[in-house]
Design brief:
The protein is an alpha+beta fold and about 950 residues long. The protein has 22 helices and 39 strands. Helix 3 packs parallel to helix 5, helix 9 packs across helix 12 and helix 16 packs across helix 17.
């Protein structure tokens, strides 16, 4: 059962991690294994600001709630057993008929599914945030189900494999779940020195992978014999050789074995003739088969379900019966075996070995031939895993990484990245529900990682973490620090420091920009971890590196929507227009930059961090979620292409990529940064204007924002509850050049606040006090740093994109009806009944956040061919300087203007300067000034 709401209140401070994602530096709950109760709470001493728990901030109807509801519905309805399938399979447990999601979460996806398990961690975090944000027990119940399953998986990995007994053709059978890495090891005497032999097996294949062995007896890839369910053509094949693949003497079937049905296969070899039977009928005959088991000599390995070729898959399916005879059975005898157990047939049980797989427990299969050649169930990767290990694949991924010198994700794909997702999900699950099992699993993972990594030379660690893709470890340092805050174990803090990538940290700490050519999302979360390391160690280089890194990305590698990266990598500083492509702005990058910005703001209240937060949240993050319900996929973009005419893809790679994982998280924590408080309780920061209600329990008050922002240009805050003294700090957005006005209880607050700051109103607040904030929006452009002609359009915080199917840059002029304030909006025409939709030259502009599949233009070419004021055209060509700045740019750069006279005065002075510089003739200058005087302007 889920804990009651009162229980969640006990865990309130601890639940910060579900949205933060930072845990406390003090004991966020030194949870006991018995109860999982949080007994204390706090935040790092270095944080001068504190976040509120997600359950303290309730979103009200607005641009966020509809998208959140779509994700909540997805989380409520999605079958978690599908995600658990790859974990259970790896542990050799029953998968309950579940089908893995595919894509990156399954064996058939990209790079052989080497990232499987990551999505489960994201899903746990999403469920945890959904529960702390809504209190709906359906999410807590699902968390507990998943944690219980993962606990069973870890226990299974720690022991020798156990038979998975299933109904057979006759009696019971032993199933090899696909992804289990299980095979059956027979004694080395099963073939003896037979010069004639019959090999028979009744199997039920469950997957159509080629070359999966039913049996394979041999030493290596030189001497062996095998029977496979599917050869290169998909048909059964038997082969025997003493000289490798080129010397194989073979028998090939003519049709595939059906999936999920029992089939009987048999091979006989005698007197130079080999025959392959399928379901009692001979399908292949080779009269030149000179090799026999005796010719192979004594072989080392005798396997059911495993191949001597490492690239071949393990057999997926069930074994009902396997028999080996020291003679060639007759065709009639083999036909009889199709329909009855061998022991009940005229052939009798195999006289060399016979296995009926009647066992329902343990890992040993009895031999009924009378020779006691009992078989053993094993894993291809060896014995039980080490204590604490938990993953959806073997430890071999981690082991292989230690010797790699370059990345190859088809061999090893970021195992510590996936470990981070699982660890983070378990921590969040514990903090949301108090489940002690989740905490125990998380601690076990970290103890296992420490035992492995602490034994490696530092040079090996540095090489590993510098490898592209394979060495990626995501935000694991942050998660480990968060666990350390709970456990207090020195080994956990030491583990976090083992992930230091010194050359990156040192370069950024020194202010040296080495990001060009680096994989963006591999490196961004490193810096969130460094901030947490600073919290725990007070080592200044960690925090300095993180601050400097942030400045290397924003704004020099940032697109207008707040995203970064092109084809997942960074280019040179300032390279924006030249990097626009179909694969810009990986969504994970925005997610991780938001986390870093948030955490840096806890240390230093520089408004630039929250300005960026608003930009990326209201544009890329909101726009990455499709406005559509789907029961099977979260519908989140991987890339958001910023080339002309791009159509967003909300189902990349079967819907289980890293970006869909972080997208699930983003859509269930929209409220996490609306409000912060000073650590001493003296101030409340309003960072985002979002319809919401804050419960500030320590003050005994609620603060409710009533607003349609960003469709509304402002917000009203109402304070209810006890009398409380504190400073209300209201963010003045950097784009708010049209003014920022505050009124308390209808009376204007005196003050002039600069864009990119916080307005502070200090008073003793009483029940019913209201604060009105007005933030006039203006339509403005932002120019690409490397090409001023390439521009993107904003109305206040909202990026507006042109919807048009053309795939070349659209060209617009925007000064034609600019207002005296400098606002370009009068040039556009509002679309009736569609807020924030406008048209210009027959093209519709809409908010980037709308999750549609319309072709969009986030950037366009700007061209003002002639000088126009108030829709009056002077007929004079609009000249430009060498840097691309035009005469109109220079005139409107001084906006806002108090009145028309002020504008005309600016036009005159600018014209005079341009005439003097030889950029404009005197006659044309006079025409420009005359037009400015003649035109009418909106204010």
């Amino acid at each position: 059962m889920a804990p009651a709401p009162a229980r969640r209140a006990v865990l309130r401070a601890a639940a910060l991690v579900a949205a933060a994602p930072a845990l406390t530096s003090l004991a966020v709950g030194r949870a006991t294994a018995a109860s999982g109760a949080a007994t204390g709470a706090g935040v790092p001493a270095a944080w001068t600001l504190q976040p509120f728990s997600p359950e303290d901030v309730a979103l009200r109807e607005g641009v966020f709630t509809a998208k959140r509801q779509l994700m909540l519905d997805f989380g409520r309805g999605y079958d978690a057993d599908r995600l658990l399938q790859v974990f259970r399979a790896n542990a050799g447990l029953a998968t309950r008929g579940a089908v893995a999601p595919g894509g990156w979460e399954g064996l058939d996806g990209e790079a052989n599914g080497n990232l499987r398990g990551h999505f489960t961690g994201h899903f746990l975090t999403m469920l945890s945030q959904a529960y702390t944000g809504t209190g709906e027990t359906v999410y807590a119940d699902k968390i507990r189900h998943m944690v219980g399953a993962l606990d069973e998986v870890r226990e299974a990995l720690r022991r020798d494999p156990v038979v998975l007994s299933v109904p057979g053709r006759f009696g019971t059978a032993a199933e090899n779940v696909r992804g289990s890495y299980h095979y059956v090891d027979l004694p080395d005497t099963v073939l003896g020195d037979a010069t004639a032999v019959t090999l028979a097996a009744r199997v039920k294949p469950t997957h159509d992978a080629g070359w999966a062995r039913i049996l394979d007896f041999g030493d290596d890839t030189t001497r062996y014999l095998y029977l496979t369910a599917r050869n290169a053509k998909g048909n059964p094949r038997f082969a025997i050789t003493t000289s490798g693949a080129g010397g194989e003497q073979s028998l090939d079937g003519t049709a595939p074995l059906p999936l999920d049905e029992w089939s009987h296969l048999a091979v006989t070899i005698a007197d130079g003739t080999g025959i392959l039977y399928v379901n009692g009928s001979a399908v292949a005959k080779n009269t030149a088969m000179t090799l026999t088991p005796a010719a192979l000599g004594t072989l080392r390995d005798h396997w059911l379900g495993r191949s001597h070729y490492a690239a071949d898959p393990v057999f997926a399916g069930a074994f009902d019966e396997v028999g080996i005879w020291s003679r060639a059975l007759t065709a009639a005898q083999i036909a009889e075996l199709r329909d009855r157990p061998a022991a009940e047939s005229s052939a009798g049980a195999g006289d060399l070995a016979a296995y009926t797989f009647a066992e329902t427990t343990g890992g040993t299969f009895a031999d009924s031939s009378g020779h006691d050649r009992h078989a053993t169930l094993r894993r291809t990767w060896g014995g039980p895993s080490h204590p604490g290990f938990l993953a959806a694949y073997p430890e071999t991924q981690f082991i292989t990484l230690e010797s790699m010198t370059s990345g190859d994700y088809t061999v090893v794909w970021a195992p510590y990245y996936t470990a981070h997702k699982i660890l983070r999900g378990l921590l969040d699950a514990h903090l949301a529900t108090g489940d002690a099992r989740a905490l125990d699993l998380a601690m076990g993972m970290c103890d296992w990682m420490y035992s492995r990594l602490s034994a490696l030379p530092r040079s090996t660690l540095q090489r590993m973490w510098d490898i592209f893709s394979s060495g990626e470890f995501g935000g694991i340092v942050e998660a480990i620090c968060d666990l350390y805050a709970i456990s207090g174990k020195d080994r956990h803090l030491a583990l976090a420091r083992l992930f230091d990538l010194d050359k990156l940290i040192d370069a950024c700490a020194a202010g040296n920009d080495t990001l060009d050519g680096l994989h963006a999302n591999q490196h961004i979360p490193i810096f969130t971890g460094l901030v947490r390391l600073y919290d725990e160690t007070k080592e200044e280089r960690y925090l300095t590196a993180a601050k400097n890194f942030w400045d290397m990305v924003v704004p020099t590698r940032m697109y207008g929507i707040g995203g970064t990266s092109n084809r997942e990598f960074w280019g040179a500083r300032g390279a924006i227009a030249k990097t626009l492509s179909d694969t810009t702005a990986e969504t994970c990058c925005a997610y991780n930059m938001l986390k870093l910005s948030r955490m840096l703001f806890f240390h230093e209240q520089d408004p630039k961090y929250m300005d960026y937060y608003e930009r990326a949240l209201y544009n890329q993050v909101l726009g990455s979620k499709q406005d559509k319900a789907d029961a099977e996929k979260p519908l989140v973009t991987y890339f958001i292409g910023l080339v002309p005419g791009h159509v967003r893809d909300y189902t990349p790679k079967a819907g289980t990529t890293c970006c869909e994982g972080t997208g699930m998280e983003s859509a269930t924590k929209y409220q996490d940064s609306v409000y912060f408080r000073r650590a001493d309780g003296t101030a409340l920061y309003v960072n985002l204007y979002s319809p919401s209600t804050l419960t500030w329990a320590e003050k005994g008050i609620t603060v409710t924002q009533s607003t349609g922002y960003p469709r509304e240009q402002g917000s009203t805050l109402t304070v209810r509850g006890r009398t409380a003294a504190f400073a209300l700090r209201l963010r003045v957005p950097a784009w708010a050049t049209g003014g920022f006005r505050v009124a308390v209880n209808g009376k204007a607050v005196k003050g002039t606040w600069s864009p990119g700051s916080y307005a502070s109103v200090s008073r003793t607040w009483r029940d019913g006090d209201t604060v009105r904030v007005d933030i006039p929006f203006r339509l403005r452009v932002e120019k690409a740093l490397d090409d001023p002609r390439v521009q993107t359009l904003f109305h206040g915080p909202v990026n507006l994109v042109a919807r048009d199917a053309r795939t070349s840059f659209l060209t617009f002029d925007l000064y034609r009806n600019a207002a005296l304030s400098g606002d370009l909006l009068p040039t556009l025409t509002p679309v009736p009944g569609k807020p924030l939709h406008y048209t210009l030259d027959g093209v519709e502009f809409a908010p980037f956040w709308e999750g549609t599949e319309e072709p969009t233009h986030a950037y366009f070419h700007r061209s003002e061919p002639t000088v126009v004021f108030g829709t009056t055209d002077s007929g004079v060509a609009n000249p430009a300087r060498d840097d691309g700045t035009t005469l109109l740019d220079a005139i409107w750069a001084a906006a806002p203007y108090r009145n028309k006279d002020a504008l005309v005065k600016r036009v005159q002075s600018t014209v005079d300067a341009w005439v003097t510089a030889g950029l404009l003739t005197a006659a044309d200058g006079r025409r420009v000034v005359a037009t400015a005087k003649k035109a009418d302007y909106l204010t």
